[in-house]
User: Fold Phosphoesterase from Allokutzneria multivorans.
Amino acid sequence: MVPEQVWREVDEADLVIHAGDWVEESVLDALTARAKVLVGVHGNNDDAGIRTRLPEVAHVEIGALRIGVVHETGAAKGREQRCDAHFPGVDVLVFGHSHIPWDTTTPGGIRLLNPGSPTDRRKQPACTYLTATIDERGLVDVELHEVG
Assistant:
């Protein structure tokens, strides 16, 4: 179930990005109906219904900022180098899978962002999500939020 705090953010956002593991198609349906713009990919825990509706990798451009979205990027060790090799031409790559918040920049200049998870914290101290501010300069601010 999506927490009310997250729904409030969805209602305010100009763009919502989901990096996979929807688990239930009803969540995809609800976010599709509620978000102004939704960009999403399927994850390893998603069934055939979700996989037919969403790609493995998605791209969106906001002004000059090129954003890629993928569920899985592999192990933390070597992630930056793998992402540089597999995602040339993106400025920001949003990924999921680990449920571990992540914010680094690759040697090639790609900003890697993992919001964690607002619904399944796994071994993390809290459920989390990210918000970002984008303007004509590009990505201006990224903030990690804990679900209260």
